[in-house]
Amino acid sequence: MALLLGIDIGTSGTKTALFSEKGALLASCTKEYPLYQPQNGWAEQEPDDWWNAVVAGIQQVLRVSGQPASSIAAIGLSGQMHGLVMLDEKGDVLRRSIIWCDQRTAAECEEITARLGRERLIEITANPALTGFTASKILWVRNHEPDIYDKCRHILLPKDYIRYRLTGEFATEVSDASGMQLLDIPRRCWSDEVLDKLSIDKTLLGRVYESPEVTGQVSSAAARVTGLAVGTPVVGGAGDNAAAAVGTGTVKDGFAFTTIGTSGVVYAHSSRVLIDPKGRVHTFCSAVPGEWHVMGVTQGAGLSLKWFRDQFCNTEKQTAERMGVDPYYLMDQEAAKVPAGSNRLLYLPYLMGERTPHLDAAARGVFFGLSAIHTRFDILRAVMEGVTYSLKDCLSVFEEMELSVNDMLACGGGGSSSLWRQMLADVYGCSVRTTVSKEGPALGVALLAGVGADVYASVQEACEAVIKTNPPQYPDINTSKIYGRYYELYKQLYPALKDSFHALESL
Q1: SS3 46
Q2: What is the pTM of this model?
Q3: What CA–CA distance (Å, rounded) separates 143 from 200?
Q4: Where in the chain is the domain with CATH 3.30.420.40?
Q5: Positive or negative torsion for Cα 315, 317, 319, 322
Q6: pLDDT band for position 285 (cuts 50, 70, 90)
Q7: Nearest Cα to 161, choosing from 61, 254, 83, 71?
Q8: What is the topology classification, in CATH, of domain 3-242?
Q9: Residue 150 known to be catalytic
Q10: CATH number of the structural domain 250-433
Q11: Tally of CB atoms within 10 A around 32
């Protein structure tokens, strides 16, 4: 029986997981590493920390599973998107990677927009210039560290640096490359126009593959340190959300998922390339060859609930510790006692600014309607409902783009809450399910590896063979009507407060 290895290079750590071809998890290992913030708003990591975590993870997974390395048919790579890795002519790292959440590149985003024009930039790359994307980071290094830029011979994304260390190949794939703002999204290749206007040498970039394609084989040098077999194929893999889509079976039209982690993501698959001319959502190439996905992001999803827990739920935290349960379990029970609408209390979850649909870094969190009747449990439920309305904002943009969604999955920490899933169903007006497997991106890229190794004939076939779901939660008609009225009021609050947010920022 062929085994498949999935490696997910995340921000807090790298997860390495070994699966059977039926999707059974045989062994997994997560290795953590630090995040460096040399200045306010900056975020960097050491690429060698990722590599060391990968090496240790592979070694442990092979040891724990007891499986021979020769039984691994192929390897898939996933990881945090947008990070900039710069190598010199010898293949050595020139500086720490500037990662996805770094915010130093506002001036470079203005430079990109000025060079391309906002409308043309969106036509080609499907997105406005954003500080998180790779292109602005490249320009920042060129503007502020010209000596390093002059030495640069290769530019890679985080997971593609691991590919280089495993195979010696400089390559990427379409889903992750979509987040660099250098890819022609409709044509699924590097954009000569963007590269020319930004004066970036195309030879710095790796070859672009489709996600299930084999990009190289494990080298003898990598085999010695990891324990892998020489020649094991390594496929393109996918960026974290595209990998999660495969790991949840979101690979056909009409399929979508909502992730409630620190941030919130609403992701929908599309066989057509659909681009929002206003740039409110991201359109990227999907891990399914020749197809795409659209993604909306709300910055402060699970973060809002974590903030409330840390500031106001010491009693629940202490009780949960005595009971041996998660504090969120007790918080769910308390929020469930509050009626839909939180007794006329609304929350805007803009603790970290917002991306979809407002793209406003100055936006801030707001409780609207707060009165003396409200308890902290009303406020707790309002936080959960406010995040749900923000995610509905993302889904509403999809509807404007005529991207239909009739099957919704819930993922992430928030997706494990039955109460929050019911809110999603009631606010979205559609059923919401969860997958049996919680392995997400690691499973997704393992399945892509299986396609590359001919274990499965296609990405869709791989998902049909492996991905199983739990029974759905359906919307309650009466509750949906209540939420519909509150959502209409919610949508009026940001436009009314926009100027005040920016005035606050200038104080």
Answers
A1: coil
A2: 0.92
A3: 13
A4: 3-242, 250-433
A5: negative
A6: very high
A7: 83
A8: Nucleotidyltransferase; domain 5 (3.30.420)
A9: no
A10: 3.30.420.40
A11: 10
